[in-house]
């Protein structure tokens, strides 16, 4: 039994598993930020530009049991409703997440390119190679 516990501990504490867990937690928190950005900032602005429209409450009634002019959340409870406005809101949120991740990766890649790797040595220039060859020839004559 202790071998199984030890093996599980080694698996769970591997760097990749821990990194993945941290990424999932940060991703969930980032998702909440984006949901708020879309729902509380962007969609109201779009609604104001389009004359006060609230996209999240646009839906198509698929059931005759749903009264007209009912908010989408209540319409879903009353019967079948196709929430196309809410879908638009979610798609905008996804696009913003993708854009934010793209921007973060661009910054990280730019930073990686600017930071020289100290372990790598640059290839010698033609002049340096010739000088090294001359040095080696002179050392061989002695």
Rounded radius of gyration (Å): 30 Å
Structural class: mainly alpha
Q: Residue-averaged pLDDT, rounded?
A: 82
Just give the CATH class.
Mainly Alpha
The biggest beta sheet is recorded as:
2 strands, antiparallel
Q: Give the ordered list of helices and strands.
A: HHEHEHH
Q: What's the shape?
A: elongated
Roughly how many Å apart are the termini?
A: 70 Å
Low-confidence stretches: none
- Count of individual domains: 1
Count of alpha/pi helices: 5
Say how many strands there are.
2
Into which percent range does the helicity of residues fall? over 70%
Notes on the structure:
With 142 residues, this protein is mainly alpha-helical. The protein has one domain (2-118): Large-conductance mechanosensitive channel, MscL, domain 1 (Non-ribosomal Peptide Synthetase Peptidyl Carrier Protein, Chain A). Helix content is 70%, strand content 3%. The protein has helices at 2-12, 15-49, 72-78, 84-114, 126-141, and strands spanning 60-61, 81-82. Strands 1-2 form a two-stranded antiparallel ribbon. Helix 2 packs across helix 4. The longest helix has 35 residues, at 15-49. It is elongated, with a radius of gyration of 30 Å.
